[in-house]
Amino acid sequence: MGEAKTSKPDDKVLQNLDVELRTALRPEDVKMPPVTLAGTLKALGPTFVLAGAIVGSGELIATTLLGAKIGFIMLWAIIVSCLAKVMIQEAIGRYIIVTGKGLHDMLDEIPGPRLGVSWAVWWVILLMVSLLVVMAGIFGAQGLALKGLFGGGSADIWGVAAGIVGIALLYRGIYDDLEKLVVFMVVAFSLITAALAFVGLQWTPYPVSVAEIAAGLAFGFPAAGVAVALSVFGMTGLSANEIVQYTYWAKGKGYAAWTGPQTAGGWLGRAKGWITVMRWDLGLAAVVYTLVTIAFYVMGAAVLHRMGITPGGFKLVDELANMYTQTLGPWCTTLFMFAAFVVLYSTYIVNTAGISRIVGDGLIRMKILRADDTTRVLFWRRIILILGPVIMFLLYYVFPSPAQLVILGGMLLSLSLPVISLISLHIDNKLKKEYPEVALGPTGTWLLRLSALTCVVFVIAGYIML
After folding, report:
1. 177 pLDDT tier (thresholds 50, 70, 90)
2. By the 8 A CB rule, do 366 and 119 touch?
3. Distance CA 466, CA 464 (A)
4. How far apart (Å, rounded) are the C-alpha atoms in residues 125 and 128?
5. CB 112 within 8 A of CB 118
6. Rounded to 5 degrees, what angle do the CA atoms 92, 242, 183 make?
7. Does domain 34-257+264-465 match CATH 1.20.1740.10?
8. Exposure string for 14-27, b = 16+ CB within 10 A, e = fewer
9. What residue segments make up the domains of the chain, in order of their start?
10. Phi and psi at residue 50, in whole multiples of 5°?
11. Which of the two residues, 38 and 227, has the higher pLDDT score?
């Protein structure tokens, strides 16, 4: 009797990789989109998976720092930052679903200068370099959170240990099994913060007044907060990094594959159906992360700003804890340290995986690396999976200031928002010419243009004011 075959982690990893890399959609992958609300909700996923990255350093560190530094005066910028990029993500997501192409296939078609590949492929590699600076700050901050959680030890050693465990989880494909649990914990912490910011603060020494909220919606742009505001704009809601990562999740999780090739009967109906599901995915996630981001900002402005604390240095996480210990009581210190670690660690995991995909696939597209099959692609991704955290640690070792690394990285990420905005406009125009039936309508087109204009103007104005 033959031995039963057992599935190894690599089997699942290679299977998922095959979907990501496939340039031609297959009829056998076709799946009809849901027609009921319940079915649609069950099909949501890509943006909520990215919630592990979206709710992270941008909210817990940068957004809170902005509120702590200048108070409520830039609440409007938080709202704009979260909402201005949704249409950009939708335009690119539509293209991926309709064509079945991957990120680098799409970017390599962008017109302009070429050095082996389109300038856009080179740009996305530079985007990942910007992200590495943010991740270096997270590398240090998660170590500080673990030190606070366990009451001692070296934050650097804790950070390195957590980083190594993360590499092992991703290397073996085990993190996929923990994904739902981590997202649940991130969402739980975010909801607690939102409940405290929107309701609970009114029964503490730090209530929020209507006048403060009104002042925050008055479009003030104080010079003292410009650098942090640019960083916040670069990271909160959707960063350029998360927008490009979405192409992998939307394709790998099924929306593009399930639409199937245009030669398969009923293609147009499936394309429209899965685009509708994607819009629900984007819209509901936008509501969630907008409310959560506002909540972190309010906590920073209401508690830390009034206390005269601007968190930073090696006391970063301890000082952030004041938002909870000063309102809920000292008993929640350990709970906060655990929650902060989960939020930061999920960001580290998701972005480390994203960097390995985008950089590895980009270097292969440039022919700097050679890969003739999925096994070789996986090999190079795993090499970069290890190199990424090593670079994060070295950056942190040279400049051991988690908060400042996050702020600097966020400012660098903001520079990519005008670029991804212009790319989305080109992709939208291309979709209108080639597949007008599934392109954005008049309202969506104007919203996309408004979104792109907002990103360009905010970033340019911010850097002029520096």
Report:
1. low
2. no
3. 6
4. 5
5. yes
6. 120
7. yes
8. bebbebbbbeebee
9. 34-257+264-465
10. -70, -10
11. 227
CA dihedral 90, 173, 350, 415 (to 10 degrees): -70
Task: Please determine, for residue 122, whether its predicted confidence score (pLDDT) is greater than 50.
Answer: yes
Q: Would you say 3 and 244 are in contact if contact means Cβ atoms under 8 Å apart?
A: no
**How many whole angstroms separate alpha carbon 72 and alpha carbon 302?**
8
Percent of the residues in the chain that have a pLDDT greater than 70, as a whole number: 89
Nearest Cα residue to 236 out of 190, 267, 281: 190
pLDDT, averaged across the chain: 86
Q: Which pLDDT value is given to residue 13?
A: 63
User: Could you give the maximum distance between any two Cα atoms of the chain, in Å?
Assistant: 78
pLDDT digits (tens, 9 = 90+) for 249-278: 777 667 887 887 777 788 889 999 999 988
Phi and psi of 297, rounded to 5°?
-65, -45
Q: Give every CB contact of residue 36 below 8 A, 6+ residues apart in sequence.
A: none
DSSP letters spanning 51-71: HHHHSSHIIIIIIHHHHHHHG
| Burial classification of residue 410, based on how many CB atoms lie within 10 Å of its CB (0-12 exposed, 13-18 middle, 19 or more buried) | buried
| DSSP 3-state of 118 | strand
* DSSP count for the chain of H helices, then E strands: 25, 2
